[in-house]
């Protein structure tokens, strides 16, 4: 009987100790990690919101992917709200699900995280554009300990779980930084496309809606006429002759202007107008080759816009840097193509 009382007393003491430890333990885990990335926020948004890229940065997927021990399955439309990533570790048999709960394009991405046998968690990535090419990413993670048993073991671990998670997130954002900053080296149909800040410009230009087949003679004739007006009034030119494309209207019609960049005032130029293009973020591609093949470069621009989910605004500029009359080798003809981006 005495032994039974001792056992019961010990059980009571153990229960009390358990309760004290559990109640004194953390109710949740909260982790915050910050990283500055030399890339526009739309680039980071693409890689961080689409599960297709998680094996290149995400801390739950990246570390295991190199060991080829994890299988993944995406359901829903990747990169859109409610999309899910399910994974299973073939070695540890751990299973997990991440759900894209909400997305505010280029600003905030929210995920729900559920790992089998672990408390449910949420984490978010907030994208703060410092300027046009630098973004600060803030990662916030929260997990609630539902019940005394998880809080008990969290106390015994002495913060080890939080430390491991913090280390994982830090590595994850480092991987996201490497992935995002490589956007400058991507090629589209063999072309390297750069993001630039277009400083704005004024053009003495002739604008008209013409048959698409008449673009070349239209440009040639009006470049010559515009240059005559500019030289006659002793106005300084900026850059090279530029085709300013507003729209391809269908039915073999194009809304286009032939312009020469100017710095100064043109007092009178019959048949011409001053076209001002404001400063804006832009894409720039250097094309080398005959003008009859330039559509390949424009197709590459369209691929870039689609890849990063960007929207262009009119007009499109083609600045003809090489004078064909001075360079017989058509492979050396250089044209700078500029697309303006919608804010």
Question: What is shown here, in short?
Answer:
29% of the residues lie in helices and 40% in strands.
Arithmetic mean pLDDT: 86
What value does the Rg take, in angstroms? Answer: 30 Å
Looking at CATH, which topology of the largest domain would you report? Alpha-D-Glucose-1,6-Bisphosphate, Chain A, domain 4
Structural class label: alpha+beta
Q: What portion of the residues fall into strands of 2 or more residues? A: 35-45%
> What is the rounded distance between the termini?
82 Å
Q: What is the CATH class designation of the largest domain? A: Alpha Beta
Described by strand count, sense and barrel closure, the largest sheet is: 8 strands, antiparallel
Tell me what you see in this structure.
The protein is an alpha+beta fold and 343 residues long. It has two domains: 24-184, Alpha-D-Glucose-1,6-Bisphosphate, Chain A, domain 4 (2-Layer Sandwich); 192-341, Multidrug-efflux Transporter 1 Regulator Bmrr, Chain A. The protein contains seven helices and 17 strands. The strands form three sheets. An eight-stranded antiparallel β-sheet has the order 10-15-17-16-12-13-11-14, covered by helices on one side. A seven-stranded antiparallel β-sheet has the order 1-7-6-5-4-3-2.
């Amino acid at each position: 009987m005495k032994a039974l009382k001792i056992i019961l007393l010990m059980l009571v003491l153990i229960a009390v100790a358990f309760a004290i430890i559990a109640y004194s333990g953390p109710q949740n885990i909260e982790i915050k990690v910050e990283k500055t990335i030399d890339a526009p926020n739309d680039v980071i948004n693409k890689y961080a919101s689409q599960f297709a890229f998680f094996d290149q940065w995400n801390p739950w997927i990246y570390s295991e992917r190199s060991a080829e021990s994890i299988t993944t399955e995406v359901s829903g439309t990747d990169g859109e709200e409610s999309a899910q990533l399910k994974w299973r570790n073939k070695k540890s048999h751990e299973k997990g699900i991440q759900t894209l709960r909400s997305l505010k394009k280029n600003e905030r991405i929210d995920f729900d995280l559920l790992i089998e046998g672990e408390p449910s968690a949420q984490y978010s990535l907030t994208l703060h554009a410092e300027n046009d090419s630098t973004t600060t990413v803030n990662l916030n993670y929260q997990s609630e300990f539902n019940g005394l048993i998880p809080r008990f073991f969290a106390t015994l671990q002495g913060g080890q779980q939080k430390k491991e998670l913090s280390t994982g997130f830090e590595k994850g954002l480092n991987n996201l930084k490497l992935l995002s900053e490589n956007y400058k080296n991507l090629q589209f149909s063999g072309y390297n496309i750069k993001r630039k800040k277009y400083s704005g410009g004024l053009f003495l230009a002739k604008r008209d809606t013409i048959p698409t087949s008449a673009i070349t003679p239209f440009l040639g004739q009006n470049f010559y006429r515009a240059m005559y007006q500019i030289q006659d009034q002793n106005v300084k030119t900026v850059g090279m002759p530029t085709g300013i494309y507003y729209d391809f209207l269908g039915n073999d019609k194009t809304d286009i202007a032939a312009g020469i960049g100017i710095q100064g005032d043109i007092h009178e130029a019959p048949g011409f107008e001053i076209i001002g293009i404001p400063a804006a973020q832009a894409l720039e591609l250097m094309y080398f080759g005959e003008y009859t093949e330039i559509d390949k470069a424009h197709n590459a621009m369209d691929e870039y816009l689609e890849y990063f989910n960007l929207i262009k605004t009119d007009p499109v500029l083609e600045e003809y840097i090489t004078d064909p009359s001075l360079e017989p080798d058509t492979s050396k003809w250089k044209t700078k193509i500029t697309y303006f981006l919608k804010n």
